[in-house]
Amino acid sequence: MDLKRKEYLKEYYKKNKDRIKKYYDDNREHKIKKVKERADNNKEKISEYQKKYTEKNKECKKIYNENYRKENKEKIKEYKEVYYEENIEKIKEYQRSYRSNRLLSDNLFKLSKNIRTLIVKSFKENGYKKTSKTFNIVGCSFEEFKLYLESKFEPWMNWDNYGLYNGEFNNGWDIDHIIPTISANSEEEIFKLNHYDNLQPLCSKVNRYIKKDIIDDTKCLFCDENLINRKYCNDRCKKNYYYKIKTEINENKKI
Known about the structure:
There is one protein chain. The protein is mostly helical. The chain folds into two domains: 61-105 and 216-255, no CATH class; 107-212, no CATH class. 65% of the residues lie in helices and 4% in strands. It contains 13 helices and two strands; from the N terminus they run H-H-H-H-H-H-H-H-H-H-E-H-E-H-H. It has helices spanning 3-15, 17-26, 28-41, 43-56, 58-71, 73-86, 88-105, 107-124, 133-138, 142-151, 187-193, 204-210, 235-254, and strands at residues 173-177, 199-203.
């Protein structure tokens, strides 16, 4: 559309604003039906256009999203809280289904879950033997592991509030991976990331709510895409972000 026609349409709209609004209000249902029909009949074409448009305007979109988040922080936060409360069962069902399917298709995910289960089980049973898998994975005896975790305790932490969670800060704590296992690309890396020196006691609220997918920010930590109730666009972005963090930590260790 050339500049001259744009200016003409702009002026036309200004002069006929009320008449145009009335027309759209009177024909709202018909317009919605037409738009839906057009969308259904041109799915591939629309999808292709949206991809090209997003790619072409990536920087502009990024700036717009950033400004919108800054200007509407409270509004976005309120929306997310309401959305989560209203859809909590749906979200939990999706997470259960996702984990079940992932266990069947992703061997690294399955290995990571099995190791986590072994570590949690060792605290329920109050120990593990030096000949056990858990000892080989964690890299120290159960008593040494407990002492190591205690050395990282915050003042409010103790063994009585291990594993507790009520949605509040400083009520309970979990054993957290400093570099998350999602960053692993092999079984060898999974085992390394479950060594005791990559584990720490962390507030359950931070671990389960803030450190995971439901956070105050609304953009993917890896690619800056605008999101709702999630930290990452998908597992690829999540994995890439953790790989980036892991690389930075390893580089700092060298220094």
